Amino acid sequence: MSYRRGKWLKASARDSSGDTPSSSPSCGGIFDLDSKRATLRQLEERMAAPDFWNDQEKVQAVVQQIKALRGWVEPFDSIEARVRSAIELDEMLSVEPDEGLSAEVEREADALGDEIEAYRLRSLLSGPDDFRDAQLEISAGAGGTEAQDWAQMIMRMYTRWAERKGYTVEILDLSDGEEAGIKGAVLEIKGLYAYGFLKAEAGVHRLVRISPFDAQARRHTSFASAFVYPVVDNEINIEVRDEDIRMDVFRASGAGGQHVNKTSSAVRLTHIPSGIVTSSQAERSQHKNKATAMKMLKNRLYQLEADKQAKKKAELDATKSDVSFGSQIRSYVFQPYTMVNDHRTELKIPDVQRVMDGDIDPFIEAYLTQLGSNGSGGGTAAA
């Protein structure tokens, strides 16, 4: 997508009256900003009614909807204002050239191109939970130290991706490997549409490389899995009865010597009806670890119900792509050549280091585009 100077004069922008011409991307299509603006105005009018705040259940639903709509409208308005300003500068430069100002317009064109592309990518997200924060669980597969090192590399990749997106990352649980790497980790990635993007990453990731842990420098294949859940906000009521929970406490793992945890502050919760187990040992406080483990449990119970609904839908939709929990989605080859290959979309990127540094958006976009073309509507991927 090119947004160079030659494109500016062809761009659609609002006139001074604030009306949107029919050629504007806010009309219809994948953005449909006019419809979103109308819905937003209606909801804001409802909030202004005197009796609006009496029903807290409805209040939370409306507030969440307003938040999601503003997440579409406000970035679009910001981009459109900058496009309009750049067009005006370009018109001035056509009459009175200025080398410094011209370079500034070029820089703004490049920056806007990236933002417009990011906004377009968001348009592929339409699932009911896509706007939420994400809980990402990473687990090492069979293979001992080699697999545990790969799991840590995967965790770094997603952390770097989140930082590129301006998201924040919180480690909810971390289990170190015996010699190197990690056995597993649970991260909470906070940012608008974090779950919508990361649902594309659910599955098994395969590594092929010459192992640094093999004295004979042989090539090894390792696996790590990524499971993705939407983070459930407080306004969603998920009932977890005390009698359905078994809590175990244990000493948190960590560095030895004077730093070893001498109290049983780590918490493991088992939800007896579903068999779901969550644990947290990130905090020194048992109370805080229990609260974190309970939050993780509610996220998974929510996703469990969402998966049941998705399964029912899949039975009626034979063309829906299979992104099941245990599917191998991608291979990362370090030797004898470098290549990252997504097996669902067949997108290949030869710069493996770029991908490991968090540049995974091309894979996410290819997956979401394919998901949309299959008519799934961007719903929840199986985690």
What key phrases describe this protein's structure?
globular, Double Stranded RNA Binding Domain, single chain, disordered N terminus, alpha+beta, three-stranded antiparallel sheet, about 375 residues, about 20% strand, Methane Monooxygenase Hydroxylase, Chain G, domain 1, 3 domains, Alpha-Beta Plaits, about 40% helix, eight-stranded mixed sheet
Folded structure, characterized:
With 383 residues, the chain is an alpha+beta fold. Helices cover 41% and strands 19% of the residues. The protein folds into 3 domains: 5-122, Release factor (Methane Monooxygenase Hydroxylase, Chain G, domain 1), CATH 1.20.58; 134-236 and 302-314 and 325-373, Alpha-Beta Plaits, CATH 3.30.70; 242-299, Double Stranded RNA Binding Domain (2-Layer Sandwich). The chain has 9 helices and 11 strands. Helix 2 packs across helix 3 and helix 3 packs antiparallel against helix 4 (99-122). It is globular, with a radius of gyration of 24 Å.
Topology:
Elements: H1 5-8, H2 33-47, H3 56-95, H4 99-122, E1 134-140, H5 145-165, E2 168-176, E3 182-190, H6 194-198, E4 203-210, E5 219-230, E6 245-250, E7 266-271, E8 276-280, H7 286-316, E9 328-333, E10 339-342, E11 348-349, H8 352-356, H9 361-373
Parallel strand pairs: 4-9
Antiparallel strand pairs: 1-3, 1-5, 2-3, 4-5, 6-7, 7-8, 9-10, 10-11
Helix pairs in contact: 2-3, 3-4
Give the structure's gist in a few sentences:
By secondary structure, this protein is α+β, with helices and mostly antiparallel strands. The chain has helices at 5-8, 33-47, 56-95, 99-122, 145-165, 194-198, 286-316, 352-356, 361-373, and strands at residues 134-140, 168-176, 182-190, 203-210, 219-230, 245-250, 266-271, 276-280, 328-333, 339-342, 348-349.
